[in-house]
Amino acid sequence: MQPREGYSTLSGPQVDLMKKIKEEMKRAQQQQSSNAKRLAAMDKEARRRDNLIRQLENKDRQREQFMKRTNEEINRLRKAQKEQARQARSAASSRVTPMRTAQSRMPRTPANRGHPPPEVAFSPKQAKMKWTFIEKRLNRLVTQKQTVGKMEEELGRQLEERTRLVDEITTLERRFVQVQDVQEREAVADQIDGCHLKLNYVQDQITEIQTAIVDMDGSKVRARSFFDFLVFREFRFFALG
């Protein structure tokens, strides 16, 4: 009742002025509320981006640690392979026994020509050395296979993550086309950019893991070739105990 009584004492222009003032105050309040909502949305988006950056940094550190361990394992296996190859050459050169040496010195006369050479003397010591060498090579091969298996598991996880991100980007792009509100479109565009950043990171990981697996496979040696160092009598020696 009091405002109406107050308005009744005002003239027409004064009443219009009061209405305009109220409308301006209402618009100012609406604008202030809208600005507050926009600031809250911007703060939320900033926090989301900060979390995304931290997640990418953590994943990058994990990727670097994983690749570091993988490279160390590859280098260790390569060094071991070189050392084992050197030992293999040394073992092969030690096959020549005094009897073999004497045989090589034996002149080829008409009397012994056409006859098979005498059998090379068997050395249990040399056979054990070769078997020890083979065991070490097989252990290295098992370790190498386990390392490749872990890398293949990680590769599978990264491929699944890449597929998920591609699907998410496709969904967000469809949503971006359908949305009419400008602010919402900007938010969707930011989400698409974030997914593309993740996708690039995942693709880099996939490439590095694939390269590491190829390097590991390239350095593999067939287990069957290890036994080429043993002759039949040496196989028989270990089989009979």
Automatic annotation (TrEMBL):
Domain KIF21A/B second helical as annotated: residue spans: 122-222
Location of the region described as Disordered in the Swiss-Prot/TrEMBL record: 26-52, 78-122
Record field: compositional bias (Basic and acidic residues): 40-52
Alphabetical GO biological process terms: microtubule-based movement; mitotic spindle organization; spindle elongation
UniProt keyword annotations, A-Z: Coiled coil, Cytoplasm, Microtubule
Listed GO MF terms: microtubule motor activity
GO cellular component terms given for this protein: microtubule; microtubule associated complex
Protein name: KIF21A/B second helical domain-containing protein
Classification lineage: Eukaryota, Metazoa, Ecdysozoa, Nematoda, Chromadorea
Encoding gene, per UniProt annotation: Acey_s0415.g1064
